[in-house]
Amino acid sequence: MDIRIKTRNVDINDALKDYMESKMSKLEKFFSKIMDSQVVVSFNRGRYTVEVTSNANGVVMRGEERDSDIRKAFDKALKNIERQVKKHKDYLKDRAKLKSHDVSLDIDQLMSELESEPEPEESEIVKTKKFDVRAMDPKEATMQMDLLGHSFFIFKNMESGKLNVVYRRNDGGYGLLDPME
Fold it and tell me: Which residues contact 11 (CB under 8 A, 6 or more apart)?
């Protein structure tokens, strides 16, 4: 596994780098498919922020923690990643058993939600983000969305080959946007 350590506004010593690398390499015990990991350490307002991102064969897992002690922040972020790795590993074991998708779309409710939202007076794009779109089923896309902590996720549907979006609904369920041809 390739491990990269980046720093922003902080210098870390070699002993701490070795500590982080040895802890990160132990992730392979949980899941051997982790290809690379990145640790970003920054210091702002008297607190250290540690972001740990791991790529497990296209599935991105991310943990971020803040603390006044850099080791504590790193250990907490690593615990988040370990939890996600275990969850993903369990998902892969159960994946063969899953035959149906629990994801559905209530188009009438979606339209009423969109119509009830007030339109902003001036729309401005403040950030553009590029990413790879992987082929997967909707269940896997909802899991990936949860692992990233996002409210929506764009993916290529394995069955139809079209771009789809899964999103977290206000009532706690999930929705699937599947464009018509």
Answer: none
